[in-house]
Every structure is written in C-alpha cells, then in structure tokens.
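Dissemination and training. As part of the outreach component of the grant, students in the summer workshop were shown how a complex can be specified as a set of sequence lines and then modelled as a single object. The example used during the hands-on session is reproduced here so that future cohorts can follow it. Participants entered these lines:
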Amino acid sequence: MIVFEHVGKRYGGRSEALADINFRVGRGEMLFLTGHSGAGKSSLLRLIMRLEKPSRGRVLVAGHDLDRFHLSQIPYYRRQIGVVFQDHQLLFDRSVFANVALPLEIQGVEPRESARRVRAALDKVGLLYRETALPIELSSGERQRIGIARAVVNKPSLLLADEPTGNLDPQLSTDIMRLFEDFNRIGTTVMVASHDLALITRLRHRVLRLREGRLVGDEEAT
Amino acid sequence: MTRRTTSPESQRPARRGARASQVGLESRTRAWLRHHRAMWLDSAQRLAKRPLSSLLTMLAIAIALVLPSGLWLALDSARLLDAELDESATVTVYLDTRLDERAAMDVAARLRDQAPVAGARLVTAAEGLAEFQQGVGLEDALASLEDNPLPAAVVVTPADTDPDSVRVLASNLEAVDGVDEARVDLAWLERLRRLAELGQRLALALAGLFGLGVLLVVGNTIRLAVESRRQEIEVVTLIGATHAFVRRPFLYSGAWYGLGGGVLAIVLLVLGGHWLSAPVTALAESYGAHFTLPRLGLKGSVLLCFCSTLLGWLGAWLAVGRHLADIKPR
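and obtained this result:
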C-alpha cells in the first residue's frame, strides 16, 4: 500500500528532516510511527498525503508514484486517504453532521446517500446522537471521534492519524485506538503517528521508529 | 488483504467505483450543479449575515460605477443633440437687398435646383423682419425705421451634412446670381463634436479606472473573506477539494457584491437624474430647446448589472487565486 524508497526530505538549508527512509506497508496493515517530536513523523505523513514532495527518493501509495501526479490530480488522490489530526481540524461554524459530511460534499455525493453514510460513520464512533451539535459543545474526546468519523466517512483505503491522542487522557486514548483497530479489521490500512509509547506497546502492532529523521527501528507486530 | 475481499464492507468501494464510471459524467454534472446552487445560496446568506458591511462594500462599488456610467449617459444625450444639430446644419444665403420679392423667389428656385441641396426655404425681407422683432423684442425701435433693412434670405438645407462638403456648397451658392453672401457657421458644431469625442474618451478612461477600482474593492473584501475562512480552506484542501471547489463560494460572493453594487448604482443614477432634471430642463428651455435627461432604460440597467457582476466575479477570482497560493495546509 505504501512504499518508501530512499526517501529524503530537506527544508530549505536546514539539516535533513528525513534521510534515506525505506519501508513497505502492506494492504490492510496497521502500524504505528513513533519517535520524539521533531523526529520526522509529521514530515513523513505529509509526504504520504502529498502535501510535500520528497527531496530524494520515491514515495508510492497504492501503486502510484506520488511524484508523477499532476497538480490537478492531487485532490482526487487525497480523497482516497482519511486523515485524523491531533487538533481534529473541525470547522466550528457548522454542525457535527455537516463536518462529517464535508468529504462527501467535496466528492459530490448525492445528499441522501451522503446523509446515510454520515450517520453510519457517526454511529461507528458512537456519536450519532450528537449530529446536530456544534463542535464547540463537544468534549475534546468527542471532537477527536468526530474527526475520525470525518476521516472514514468516504471509506478510504488508507487512514492516517497524526498524534490522534495527543490531548486525551489514557482511557480516551485507548478508546480512540480501539476505533482505529475496528477500521483496520474491515480492511483499511491504518498508520498512526504517536509518541505515546506506553499505549503503542500495549497494542502490539507493527512499529516504525524514527530518530532525527532516520528510520531506526521496524518492529513487527507481536 | 484476504480480509478485504471477504468483508462485505470492503466490497463496497469496488462496486461504487463501477457504478461511478457508468454514470460518471451525469452524476458529476449533477454534483457540480448542486454545489453551484449550494454556494450561490451560501454566499448570499453570508452577505446577508453582515448586512451593513456588505452594503458598504456594494455602495463603494456603486459609487465607482456611477461616475463613468453617468458621464456615458450625458454623452449619449449629447449625441442625440448632435443628431438634431446635424439636421440644422443649414446654409443661410442672403440675397441682394435690391431684389424684390418675385426676383427673390426666382433665385430661391434656382438655388433649390443646385445638386447637393436637399431643400431651400425663402425667408422674405418682411418675414425676416417679423422674426427678428419677435426674437429680439426691439419692436419699437424697428418700427421707427422707414425701410426694412433686412435682405431676403434663403435657408438651404444641404443634402450632405459633412462640414467640408457644406463649405464647398456654400461657396458654390455664393456664385449664383443675385446672391450676396452665403453664411455657414460650422465651427461651433465641430467644436461640439470634438468636445463630445473628448467626453467619450474621458468616460472610457474613467470606466477603466473605476472598473479597476471595483476590482480592488471586491478583491480586498474577498481577501478578507479568504483570510477569515483560512482554516476551512486548509481543511477542505487536505481532504481532497479541488481549487475550483475552494474558489467557488468566493466567486459567488464577488458576483453578489458586483450585482448589489450595480443595482445600487442604478438607484443612484435614477435619484441623480431626478435631482438634476429640473435645472437641466430649465436650462434647455432658456435656450429654446427641449431636452430631458436620458434614462438608463431596461437595456442599460441590465448591461450595467451584468458588467458590475462580471467585475465582482473577476475581482474575486483574482483575489482568491492570489491568496489560495499562500494558503498551504500546515
């Protein structure tokens, strides 16, 4: 699903954010990406989302060389990826329902079909009863779950999460991770960047370890 | 991977894909239209939510539109006046004072036969005197004169009103027997034409300048709107929105601003027309002319609204294009 071949990324004249990264992720896999802040986790995710191009090497996702994409193709590529952000990135001027419906609106899904899928996604994260609420009325754990609902509403084949549990207490963090495992169980490839080592170790999935832009560990699931 | 093929959930994307390619174009067109309609409404609602600032923006646009279109209207009326003057471009042929009425009629008939003459009207000395008395109000003074000092005159209407050919005609007429002098006063007519041309260019320059002003006003407003919706733009870009999708609501906002500005400009023009019509009519009457300020009319109104909407749209397009490049998701 994801292939990194000798990938390096350099921002301006500074030292390399990523250097010679090589790994493969199979379809339907679930893995963690870990390391201290500044180790390059976000940069790596940004490369997969094609927000940036690598300075060196190639990134392939679902068989596509991301470097070869024309600028106008990128939006269509991103629609195949669900992304969960640390700060959830919900829009505060619209309801929970409208937030989750956003990816479908962008793809031009019929309203009725869209409503059905939004409710299914909200149901999956256990917040169907909050559909008319505004994000401001929700707790941070709930917001994060809405963010996840939005990421999975168009059934992406790849789900990326950047520190999804960064601001949550251990119990809520575990709940969120269980949600990711649920999505992985139905075939979605899931990649979670997190520095919460205690949680990661407990979950026993594959772990990619980054340190100062280098891949220093690739531990198989136990 | 094996789980993927057996799970009913995971089969859905594949099925959806097949269906999408079958009805692709039609459903995409429908989705496109749906988004247009949604953004059309959404942008209008956003403007309505902050009525005062929207109104001020539209008013700024309206003011920028009023000046060039007002000037254009004034020139249009000058052109109407000009057409009227064209018909009054006549040559006054003064006959020898020694000719009596019968001889004068002969000369008038001869003048009428000249090639480029469309018409000739004899004004006998007596008629001339009567007109003069009426016009100038010197009845008593003129009545005390024993003889009529005025010559008979023939007012010749040239077939060709071009200033040069009128001048040639005048000199030809002067050569006719019994003609004392052929007088043509075209200089003021030409001056008026030059003025009208100048005014027209001025109106065009102003239209260009103020059109640019409208672009800037809309551009600045849209820039602020883009800035205030920065997060939204970042998020939708991250989840796969095309540039067109992101741009659309702003383009509609720009178009709404333009349309609102156009409508306000029409209101201002109508009000201004009413405000000026009384003194203009009075002024025209003092010159013995009938002149009313021209109206924009339905065609003009539609054209003005169309242009202002287009300008608003264009201003938004420029602003969004310029600022979208700056907004990159973090």
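The interface with chain A takes residues 1, 3-4, 7, 9-10, 12-13, 27-28, 30-32, 34-35, 231-232, 234-243, 245, 328-329 of chain B (CB under 8 Å). Students were then asked to discuss how this feature might be tested experimentally.
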